[in-house]
Amino acid sequence: MKNGWEELVSIDNIDVRVEAEDWKDAIRKAGQLLLDKGDIESAYIEDMIASIETLGPYIVITKGFALAHAAPCEAVKNNAVSLINLKNEINFGSQNDPVRVVMCLACVDKESHIGKLSKIAMKLMEKDMIEKLANCDSKEELYKTINAVKEEA
Fold it and tell me: Which residues contact 68 (CB under 8 A, 6 or more apart)?
């Protein structure tokens, strides 16, 4: 951490106002950012979709926010996180629909990502954070919103 900042999501792994046809398309677009950087192989994107088809929309962990992920596997090359906000709301079939923010989490094993996931969870619990993320209009704004350390009052 430097100057009150800690990078939870790199700017290369962020996109805004993404158009998605449905929940599968939203996951594919969030995953594509990690695929483009070589952090995952395309099989991981299909694993994330298969997890939801099998287990239901458990990834919609709070109102308006989906945390797409699947079990660690060989298709994950590096621990990585991507974040998109959607131009249009998407229903996943969850009580927390509609979703406007999708984060994709890829982990090489079950342990190494716990620290980062904990920091992300703390960030997401900040007041109105999902709404703030959903309303960002530029990659830079979304980057600053997710990565900024909460200022002391």
Answer: 27, 30, 31, 48, 59, 102, 103, 104, 105
Beta bridge partners of 69: 105
Domain assignment present for residue 3? The answer is no
Q: What is the pTM of this model?
A: 0.91
- The predicted pLDDT at position 153 comes to 42
Here the CATH number for the domain that contains residue 17 is 3.40.930.10
Higher-confidence position of 3 and 85 = 85
- What's the total number of domains in the chain? 1
3-state secondary structure of 16: strand
Q: In what order do the strands lie in the sheet with 60-62?
A: 14-18, 80-90, 99-106, 65-69, 60-62
SS3 112: coil
